[in-house]
Structures are given as structure tokens and as C-alpha cells.
Amino acid sequence: MSTIPGVGIGLGVAQGPVARMAAPLPAPANDPSPLSAQDETARVREAVHAVARELEERGALAGGAARDVLEAQAMMAEDPSLESEVDTRLAAGATAEWAVHDAFASFRDTLTAVGGYLGERAADLDDVAQRVIARLRGEPAPGVPDPGHPFVLVATDLAPADTALLDLDQVLALITSEGGPTSHTAILAREKGIVAIVGAAEAARLADDETVIVDAAAGVVVTEPTEEELQRAHNRADARANAASAPITPGALADGTAVPLLANLGKPDGAAEAVELGAEGVGLFRTEFLFLSSTNAPTVAQQRESYRQLLAAFRGKKVVVRALDAGADKPLAFLNDAHEENPALGLRGLRALRANEDILREQLTALAEADADVRAGGEAADLWVMAPMVSTVEETSYFVTLAREYGIKTAGVMVEVPSSALLADRVLREADFASIGTNDLTQYTLAADRLLGSVASFQDPWHPAVLSLIRTTGRAGADLGKPVGICGEAAADPLLAVVLVGLGATSLSMAPSALADVRATLLQYGLDDARRIAEAALAANDAASARIAAREAATA
């Protein structure tokens, strides 16, 4: 037996024979085209259009976060700048296949150099190029294998179009040699409840039909397992399935300390599933979906209807709505079209909203009106509204004062910047609550872009520096009697969820599919245990050591 380390997604364990993703299509030769540039252009247009529509159809079928990802890929395929690059090569006499290959590769290299969100999307661009070239050749696009039996899928990384529609009756687990906990593969795997390990660099040595155990809880792939190990893994999988089917109870520790478990949602249509999976409310409702697909800001009426649907689905429960978080990886031309050398440190979040205050005022108007509409029709939801990317006490005061002007009773801020964590005692004197966004807090604390593969090893919320900032914020909340929630990806890690509660988090919000594992894990520890485990993690020198220390303390 040997193990291959990686980053586990969730607590699942699975076993089965390996089936590897097919190799990418070979690059086309740079031979002169026998056709006219006009004919080759027509071929490219048809292929790109067909691929874009297929991606949209896959997204519509998959729903949820997968739909957003695939719709973004479809837009990428038809990007005018990319089309211009292809046309330049066609005009020079290239074949459609080579023009697409070379133009997409050039575009990909540009995105990689930019880094951040765009850099992470370079892999998505490769997938689009492969699909277009396959269409031009009249061949099926490379995709998930079909060995005729259930299997453990092994890939370098998985394209969103493939992840979105995985047959969960056939794919027992997923292993990728690249990617991190915030990659599209990890996010979609978590949403679909797939047992997965990402970033397992040594996975390239796994062979087809080799039996492995994928232990996401331990973050390892076990190769050449013994019969005893296979049986233990089987028993763990059965126990987890039984726990997931048990009656849903409110989130709590073993000593009865309440820890509300909330859902992160991106659209109102995810509400029903979240409730079914046991969400006690919404800890983060992202409003960007209303803005990102439009060239103009949505009207108050359009926003009000979406917010009304959400609030009506959670009558009697807390719903935390984040004001528009645009800029950096989510640029909006009508909000900020100025070029910024480093947009992650530029006009984003509340800064962008203050520069375009009419958009913020319209959003607050729509939220207040939606809340009033739901109240008029029966039991209301408990609406909380928070500002993104708050970095100063003055910004906190500005947002809370403005929210009060529109009748928002509970107004808070997101703690995503070290300055707001360090000044949490002063920030929380102004705000009604704080919600810690661990993804951004980690990237700003460690100066490591959370979507840049070259620094992915730094993007780990287990790092003691990040945990220390969370503790500072949690203590400020406790001293002032103000709630401090967690709404980043960290809350979906069951053991880290225990640590977060030990650091002072009063609620946890996550992808709905993660709720069962986190609920079951919290019930194993009391508040004193959580604080002891948190202290063990804080005493470590790095993220890996903190994770190990917490695991050892949890089993002591």
C-alpha cells in the first residue's frame, strides 16, 4: 500500500477501478488551407456557434453553479477579441483548425499572464478550443471515458462541461492532479456531492483498472489497498450514508451550543434544495447574477422580484444578502471600466459601489421593497444586508447609515481584508454583524491570488495567520454581543468548521451539499473541545501543520 496526497473535498470515501481521461486532441499542423479564407471563416463560425450552444444546453440541464460556469464558457467561446484573433490567422491562409488552435493558445497565454480570475479561466479556454477543433474535424470531443462499469475518474483537471454532467451512477469518485480547493472542479464536485481529491500531483502514475481508495476526509488516494482496507473504507462509506439519511436537526455542538448552518446561494432557484438539505437560512446570497449577464444595471423592479422570491422561500429564517460585489474578477463596464494594473487591489466591492452610489441605492431600495412585499403576504424572512470588501471603520459607518436610510434593520459588513479584522472591535461598534469571507481574507493575508495556480499552495484558510485574524474578529463579536458568521469555502471543511467555532464563529454558511458532513462533525465536539482544537491549529507554523495539529487534537 502507498498513498498519494492531495486536497480532499468533503468527508467522503469511495473505492473502485481507475479510468483515466483521454489525452487531448493532437495539435493541428500549420499547413496552408486548400479553401478560401471565406469558406474557412464560415466553418469556424458554425463550429464556435455549435459549441457555445452545446455548453449553454449542458448548463441548463445541470443547473446550479454549473450553469453559471458553462454560460461563462459559452460567452468566452464567442468573445469578439478571440474571434478577431482567429480571423487574422484565417486571412493569412491558415486552416480553421490551426487558426482556432493558435488563436486560443495565444489568448490563453495572455490570460495566464494576467493571473487572478482570468488566469484560472485559461483551462476553461483550452476546453473550448478542444471542442471547437473536434467539431471542425467531425470527431467527438475528448471527454469522460465509458469503460462500461462504475469507476474512479482520474484527470489532469476536469472541464466544467464534463464535471457538470457526470453520471454519478458510474463515477464513484474524482481525482485530479491539478487544481485547488477553490477551482471550478472542486466547487462543482462539492455542489454535486462527489467524493473528490484535487491537486494530487502524483495521480499521473495511476493506471487504468488499478483499484484505489479515494479518502477525501484524509486527503489521500490509497493505492494497492489490502482487503482489510477496502472493507474499512466500505464500512465508512455506509456509515456516512446512514448519517446523511438521518433526520435533519439544527446545527449544534455536542454540548448543545447552537451553531446555525446556513446556505451560500447564487440565485433564488437554489432555495428549495437548500431547505431540503437542512439549511437553517441563507448566510450569503450573492446578487452578482443579476448584474453580470447584463450590459446595464438591472432595474429596481427586476431586482425586487428576485429578492422577493428568495425571501418568500425562507419565511421565518435569516437571509443575509451581500450587496453587489463587482470589480477585480467580476468586472462590470457600467460600474468601473477604467483599466487597473492590479484590480484585486483596486476599485472593487464597496469602493466601486460608492463611486456609483445610484446602483447601491437602487439595490437597497429593491431589497427594502421586497422585504415589505413578503411581510405583507405573511410571515417575513429576517433580512440582513452586508457590504463586500469593507476595509475601514469609515466605510462601515457609511454603509450602515445608508442602509438605515432605506429601512434595512440589520446591516453588516464582510471581513475579507486584514484591516477590517484587525479593527474588528471598532468595525463592530458600527455594524450589526460581520461575516468573514475566508477566500478573500486568505488571499489578502498571504498576498496570494486565490485563483492563480502558481501560488495555490498559499491559498489555504488553515494558515495560522488567517486563523488568528478570524479569532480577533470572533473575540470582538463576543465582547460586543455581535454575531460573526463564516461564509467562505472554509466553512464547508468539517474539521475546519469545528476550529472556526472555536475561534468565535457564531454561524457557518456553505454550499448546501456540505451541510450534512459539517452538521455530523460538529455534534462530535463540545465548545471547550472546539476551542482546544482551535488553539492547537493556531500554535502551528503553517497550514499543513495546523491541519495535522487540529486532527491530532480532535482525536485526543
Question: How are the secondary structure elements laid out?
Answer:
Layout: E1 2-5, E2 7-9, E3 13-20, H1 37-62, H2 64-77, H3 80-91, H4 96-114, H5 116-120, H6 122-137, E4 151-155, H7 160-164, E5 171-176, H8 184-192, E6 196-198, E7 211-215, E8 220-223, H9 227-244, E9 261-265, H10 271-276, E10 281-286, H11 289-292, H12 300-313, E11 318-322, H13 350-355, H14 357-376, E12 382-387, H15 393-405, E13 410-415, H16 418-422, H17 424-430, E14 434-436, H18 438-445, H19 464-480, E15 484-486, H20 494-502, E16 507-510, H21 515-522, H22 527-538, H23 543-555
Parallel strand pairs: 3-4, 4-5, 5-6, 9-10, 9-16, 10-11, 11-12, 12-13, 13-14, 14-15, 15-16
Antiparallel strand pairs: 1-8, 2-6, 3-7, 7-8
Give the structure's gist in a few sentences:
The protein has 23 helices and 16 strands. It has helices at residues 37-62, 64-77, 80-91, 96-114, 116-120, 122-137, 160-164, 184-192, 227-244, 271-276, 289-292, 300-313, 350-355, 357-376, 393-405, 418-422, 424-430, 438-445, 464-480, 494-502, 515-522, 527-538, 543-555, and strands spanning 2-5, 7-9, 13-20, 151-155, 171-176, 196-198, 211-215, 220-223, 261-265, 281-286, 318-322, 382-387, 410-415, 434-436, 484-486, 507-510. The model has no long low-confidence stretch (mean pLDDT 88).
Tell me about this structure.
The chain folds into 3 domains: 2-22 and 143-244, Glucose Oxidase, domain 1 (3-Layer(bba) Sandwich), CATH 3.50.30.10; 37-137, PtsI, HPr-binding domain (Enzyme I, Chain A, domain 2, Orthogonal Bundle); 261-555, Phosphoenolpyruvate-binding domains (TIM Barrel, Alpha-Beta Barrel), CATH 3.20.20.60. The longest helix is centred in the first third of the chain and has 26 residues, at 37-62. Helices cover 48% and strands 14% of the residues. By secondary structure, it is α/β, with parallel strands linked by helices. Helix 4 runs antiparallel to helix 6 (122-137) and helix 12 packs across helix 14.
